[in-house]
Design goal:
The complex is a heterodimer of chains A (285) and B (347). Chain A has 285 residues and is mostly helical. Chain A has two domains: 33 residues, no CATH class; 238 residues, MetI-like (MetI-like fold, Orthogonal Bundle), CATH 1.10.3720.10. In chain A, helix 3 packs parallel to helix 7 and helix 5 crosses helix 7. The longest helix of chain A has 32 residues. Chain B has nine helices and 20 strands. Chain B is 24% helix and 34% strand. Chain B has 347 residues and is α+β, with helices and mostly antiparallel strands. In chain B, helix 4 packs across helix 5 and helix 5 runs parallel beside helix 6. The chains are: A mainly alpha (285), B alpha+beta (347).
Chain lengths: 285, 347
């Protein structure tokens, strides 16, 4: 048996699962987005589902909200993660413990974090009650709306809480493998600490930051559960809107849900493409 | 141009009981090229980093022209360090790497371009400004690193193992380039090396550091002729050490009585002499003649190493292959140890 065949046979179980479940599902979704769903009598493909998506005001509002959530979460998480990595790479007493605590919530599911956020930051949550108890606000409902709010503060906080350690761990590993010699060279050539960071360390860790932030952007743009738990009822994040359409009692709404899902995936890919191009150009300049 | 004084400089790393550098004191005159020589881990690079302000000292002081620079930030010391692995910024072109220091000093762009072109010419890389470091050979990268350091006209230049990553032929080329540029620009230069030959060829003075302590700080030839102790002599390739007693004029040992040069110490000690100073096929008129048996003969290309036995003592000699071509293992030969090549080390 040739080596190629052996490799193909060994990979076959994993590839068939990916092929059938992922690409199969994608294909069905793609077909349905073109209004092709024979089970309910839709046998003539057309673009009506896409037309419905692109003429809906709700879709555009949802898109803006989702973009705001993904972009703000990614940028803030990346900035905070870089700051955390800069602190954690230093040698200090108790560094191992701090490092462990920093990475601890990587193991906590998003859903648990979202419920925690709900308990802490909602207008009936712990902080609102404490604020009222300590007379910082007259009643819990005076607590600023950070959950179910139109600016998605709760959702962004939840993503930051979860993604800072994720990006931070990648950057920290990157920084540790680089060491401090490049910055030392820059310092001895006349760069101050800030210049050494901006002109030397940032470009060096940039590939790591970029990879991690792309993952975070793609995830936060397409994630359903957190906006579903912590989001406002209007406008909804795109994945929530798509799921709502998908679970509509009227099966005829499914093509629109699928069209929306396909649009989310394409938009996500497109934005990542422009993000990578823009940031690479910025860093080169 | 700066006179560098290092006063009892000590570094103890956190969690370590032993100092990495123990009370090092050196005076490095303006415009001189000094080598910090020693094996890996002896504290050489630690010393350089403390001079550059990249590492805090545990105690001691660093003075430039009699002014302590301990409170000066690295970017204000006027010291540039060239690291062993060059550390060119991989995402910048050669020209941007070289101009980095000027850019940090906010020198106008046209001025940077002009000076970069000049310095690249000086290091003989005039056409490589647009290349990336990954497109350069090791020797070219070393030149770029040197150009990047020299362009800011430092008061003190620190070179960490400047030749260790280069091939033999490039070493000669770089050695001449470094020496030439250093003398032309008159920059006080300190370089670190573990290679005694490199130190001897390049430096005005050599500071030998062993186990974090300064062993000897002298002109290079002194290390060969008058080493301070056995460890120093061994570091410089010393092979012959014979225990005995000196009265300052004669050394008495298993080799017999040997006349000593002026200045030799008295008392118990070890006689040392370099393998290349043993004269083979000596005549009776030569000084300190002995009879030896050739135990082993090793051809080294340009030299031949002879392992000799005199009584119970084993000696190492190095000779010109033509002079010893008729000598075989087991032969008995007359050897001479000229008094001027002998030195007594304290026990």
């Amino acid at each position: 048996m040739s080596d190629r065949l052996k490799i193909a046979l060994l990979l076959a179980p994993a590839l068939s699962i990916i092929g059938i479940l992922f690409f199969g599902g994608l294909l069905i979704g793609f077909m349905r987005s073109f209004n092709y769903m024979p089970v309910i009598g839709l046998t003539d493909p057309d673009l009506s589902a896409y037309a419905a998506v692109f003429t809906s005001k709700e879709f555009y509002l949802s898109f803006l909200l989702t973009f705001h959530i993904a972009f703000t979460s990614t940028v803030l998480s990346s900035i905070l993660a870089i700051g955390a990595a800069l602190l954690l790479r230093r040698t200090f007493i108790g560094r191992s413990l701090i490092n462990f605590l920093f990475q601890l919530n990587l193991t906590v599911p998003h859903l648990v974090g979202a419920i925690g956020m709900l308990y802490l930051f909602s207008q009936s949550g712990s902080f609102a009650r404490l604020g009222a108890e300590w007379n910082l606000i007259s009643k819990p409902s005076d607590f600023p709306a950070m959950v179910f709010d139109p600016y998605a503060i709760g959702i962004i906080l939840q993503y930051i809480w979860k993604e800072v350690p994720f990006i931070g761990v990648i950057i920290l590993a990157n920084m540790q493998s680089l060491g401090e010699d490049y910055e030392s060279v820059a310092r001895s050539l006349g760069a101050n600490k800030w210049q050494a960071f901006i002109h030397v360390l940032m470009p060096l860790i940039f590939p790591g930051v970029l990879s991690a932030s792309i993952i975070v952007f793609a995830f936060t743009f397409g994630a359903y559960e957190i906006p579903a738990i912590l989001g406002a009822s209007y406008p909804k994040a795109l994945p929530v809107l798509a799921y709502q359409k998908y679970t509509d009692v009227d099966l005829a709404a499914r093509p629109e849900a699928m069209a929306m899902a396909i649009v989310i995936a394409l938009l996500s890919a497109l934005m990542i493409y422009f993000y990578v191009r823009y940031t690479r150009r910025r860093i080169r300049s | 141009m700066t006179h560098v004084s290092i006063k009892e400089l000590t570094k103890i790393y956190p969690g370590s009981a032993e100092p990495a550098l123990d009370q090092l004191s050196l005076e490095i005159p303006t415009g001189e090229l000094t080598a910090l020589l020693g094996p890996s881990g002896c504290g050489k690079t630690t010393t350089m980093k403390m001079i550059a302000g990249l590492l805090a000292q545990t105690s001691g002081d660093v003075l430039f022209d009699d002014r302590s620079v301990l409170n000066d930030r690295p970017e204000h010391r006027g010291v540039v360090m060239v690291f062993q692995n060059y550390l060119l910024f991989p995402y910048m072109s050669v020209a941007d790497n070289v101009g980095f220091g000027l850019k940090m000093r906010k020198v106008p762009k046209p001025e940077i371009d002009r000076r970069v072109a000049e310095i690249l010419e000086l290091v003989k890389l005039p056409d490589l400004g647009s290349r990336r470091p990954s497109e350069l050979s090791g020797g070219q990268q070393q030149r770029v690193a040197l150009a990047r350091a020299l362009i800011v006209q430092p008061n003190v230049l620190l070179l960490d193992e400047p030749l260790s990553n280069l091939d033999a032929h490039l070493r000669f080329e770089m050695r001449d380039l470094i020496r030439g540029l250093q003398q032309e620009m008159g920059i006080t230069t300190i370089f670190v090396t573990h290679d005694q030959e490199e130190a001897v060829v390049l430096a005005d003075k050599v500071a030998l550091i062993l186990d974090g302590r300064l062993k000897q700080y002298e002109n290079a030839d002194v290390f060969y002729k008058r080493p301070i102790d056995e460890a120093t002599a061994r570091f410089f390739g010393g092979q012959n050490f014979v225990s005995g007693k000196s009265n300052g004029l004669v050394f008495e040992s298993a080799l017999g009585k040997l006349a000593l040069p002026e200045g030799a110490i008295s008392g118990s000690g070890k006689l040392t002499f370099r393998p290349e100073n043993i004269r083979i096929n000596a005549t009776k008129t030569d000084e300190n003649t002995l009879k030896a048996v050739v135990n082993e003969r090793i051809f080294l290309g340009t030299q031949t190493r002879l392992r000799l036995v005199v009584g119970d003592e084993k000696l190492d000699a190095i000779a010109n292959p033509n002079e010893v071509e008729n000598i075989s293992t087991g032969d008995s030969v007359n050897i001479s140890l000229p008094a001027s090549s002998l030195w007594v080390l304290p026990k």
